[in-house]
Amino acid sequence: MAGTGEAHLLVDAEGTVLSVRHLQVEYRTPGGVVHAVSDVSFDVRPGETLGLVGESGCGKSTTGKAVLRLEKLAGGQVVYRGQDLASAKRGTLRPLRRKLQMIFQDPVSSLNPRRSVRELVVEGLTIAGRPAAERREAADRVLADVGLDPERFGPLRPRQLSGGQAQRVAIARALAIRPDLIVCDEPVSALDVSVQAQIVNLLHDLKDEHALTLVFISHDLSVVRSVCDRVMVMYLGRICEVGDVDSVFAAPAHPYTRALLDSVPRRRAAGGFPGPALEGDIPSPLDPPSGCRFRTRCPLATERCAVEVPEVRAVGDGHFAACHHADAPADLGRVPVSV
Question: What does the alpha-carbon distance between residue 134 and residue 171 come to, in Å, rounded to a whole number?
Answer without folding.
Answer: 19
